[in-house]
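Write out structure tokens for Family 10 glycosylhydrolase.
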Amino acid sequence: MLDARRQNTGTLRTPDWFKDATRWTQLTFVEDDPEKYDPAFWVDVFKRTRSNAVCLSAGGYIAYYPSDVPYHYVSKYLGGKDIFGALVDAARKLDMHVMARVDPHAIHDDAARAHPEWVMINADGTPRRHWAYPDVWVTNAYGDYNTVFMPEVVKEIVRKYDIDAVFANRWQGHGVDYSEDSAHRFKDMFGHALPKKPDAEDPAWQAWVQWRRRVLTDMIAQWDDAVKAIRPHASFIPNMGGASLMEFDLSVIARHCPFLVVDHQGRKGLELGWSAGRNGKRIRATFPDRPVVLITSIGPEEEYRWKDAVTSGEEMQLWINDGTAHGLYAWFTKFNGVVPDERWVEPVADAFALQAAVEPVLESMKPAAEIAVIDPSTTLRHWAPEERPNAEKHDLGFYHALVEARLPFELLSDQVLTKENLDRFKLIILANASCLSDEQNAAIRAYAERGGSVIASYETSLRDETGRQRQEFGLSELFGAKFVAGPRGIVKNTYVALSGDHPINEGYEGAERIMGGTRLLHVEATNGSKTPFLYVPDFPDLPMEEVYPRKAPEGAAVIARETGTGGRAVYIPWNIGEIFWEVFAVDHARLIANAVHWALGKTPRVTVMGPGVVDLALRENSDGIALSLFNLTNPMMMKGPIRENYPLAAQTVSVEIPAGKSVARAWLVVADRAANVSVKDGRAQVEVPGIERLEVLHLSWK
């Protein structure tokens, strides 16, 4: 165990400390912990899990140390103790990195009476009581509480304790604050009254989203500056989800956040097992070189919030291990220092041990996928946060189709469409990037002119960055498509018919047509484009005697063209990603996979053959490649918690060998042994005998 921690001694208390903070324990104290919890148990957890970093509750809503900041509420059970400081010292003796957690989202009565301006105001003008614990008050995240009071708390913690960072939870606010101060500042900047409800079409709502972004971005800089003024190596680390990056000024995040923490702690409702890895891809979509840490809860993440419960060990391992496969650092969180149910400790220790096993190989490598799905931040900003999941269905459908097709891929944010970022990929996919600026469209066209291939669907480039519909696609020439009318829908009982022989309509032997979409655009093919599928004109779905087509297929339903610069373009003028996400029709999965294979124009760099569902991640450096194969094959793949793990049967991996290189070694990192490898036609073929949860194939070149 000690060897895993010794690596930290080289970066302890340096600006690069976070680079080997790869396995995190988080303990979120509850108020009576000072009297009831066992610190020795937690020190043992640090050791058993081989954690090299810890995040501990310090203050904010409740302080777990003796605080001198006025109105900073100290736990009434603390007495003469300092449980935060004691665990900081214990962790440092184990050469662990330490981060102090603060939660600024609520205050007690004495603070609210003395500083009513710290309390969030409802739309009806009343102060907002806490929705879950009405004895306390919700704070106004956009005013003096976070810009005057909390910086004093942060500075006190950083001065008193040997820590590397301050981590803020629930710091972003909870909706619109209707205080006079917020209303005045907002109107001065944008000229609007505060919006009464989330509405993507309301100019006041859009303006408020921008105002909030500016206020919170400034807060990140202020808190980080306060930390660094006392401990120059340390940082303020805001807690955020992958989608949160679209809410902030990226230059401020780049300057102040050396690593990013994703607060997506587990699956909720119907959610795919690959969602953990997607979190990392979404951060890398904007900051490809920045370490990402994924928080995993030991409890279920359902809306009913059993926060002191324990989910199944297999479910915890699924979440942590899929994050590991995609290069995320591991972090588990436990609420309440008292542990009435210890069933989580061994699964977390096992998952962290797997993380430790693959780190030496993965840490020196960078993602190397040939394919990128464009993360459409410009489009998603036009949706209220609670409605955003509906807008993301297009992207999620393509995501799952690519997983099923066993194609390694990354995400790339449309906020960073630079030549350098785009040219990392041979193919980019725009599932429904409906809102794109002239500059973004120009960047995509330039990418295609340099030989890149593009797949797009539905409304991609039909709107500008403000959401206003254009008269023509911004990428019309690239698509080989002219906009005629639409969108139209929801339309039921729609079909698309195979047209001619084309690689995109292969594999449908015995079928003349397949299911179509539910939201359709009418377009005309241009530039000599091919149309592998045509729309079947609408016909009724009832009475059953009327369910037959009246007309022959007409109108382009899939458009494919050679760009003339070495790449290919495919445009699908209906909501194939969204409808695949909703229905999971096998014909739609095949259509997406066929389009990708044809647009690539070559055999993929990596292919994997075998049974089951495997989530792939490809990384490389000058010495070789590492292919992570994560076993998703489980009856509970789409909704947890997993009850039992089902080991995967043997897989055959084929990897393109770079020009001028040969295979020096094929190594199975988790199994810790050599793999059988053969070479044919410039490709290395490796047999992976089986995968329990995760295997990493490391091919070294010579």
